[in-house]
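All the exercises in this workshop are built on plain-text protein records. A record pairs a protein's sequence with a compact description of its fold. The structure tokens are whole numbers drawn from a learned vocabulary of backbone shapes. Once this layout is familiar, the rest of the handout is easier to follow. An example says more than a description, so a record of this kind follows.
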Amino acid sequence: LENADYQKVASIANTEFNRTQDTGALLQQLNALYRSERWFDFEKVVDGLTESILEESSSTATHIRELAIKVFMKIRKLDRAQKLLTLAKKMGDDSFELDMCDASIDAMEARYSDARDKLEIINRKNPMSTIVLKRLVLVCEQDRDYEAAAGYLRAVLKINRDDEKLLRKRQQYESLGMW
């Protein structure tokens, strides 16, 4: 869909949600705002929600919480993202995406050791996941553990042999004598 189409979808879903309080319509509205990258409009909608909607134990509410966490991370409102993540865990939400958000929040707040620990747990659950291994390379670099970063880089290059960015990073490590 084009950006204008997402705006139409968001508007129609907003009307339906306001009329019926159907959380499915709310999810469609938030999805449309998310896909059109209208982060602050998304935030306004979430700000207008009652706590009871966010605390529902339905799959729709689970998706709403996950989208909201991602948006708050994008707009660097990490305290709000963390608060929703805590609620999501309390509600029993469990997904690869939420685990990645949890580790990413730590990394964004310069808690690299905590982020690395969480990413390594995710890596054990999802071995050889490109996204996890790339994130581990970054976190290890930020934590100045270049030997570990090189190790994770080797692992991710086994999966993505043609990734130019990873190949450039490998060249940097080779030039530093760390390969």
Notes: The two ends are 44 Å apart (CA to CA). The mean pLDDT is 95. The chain is about 80% helix and 0% strand. The longest helix spans residues 3-20.
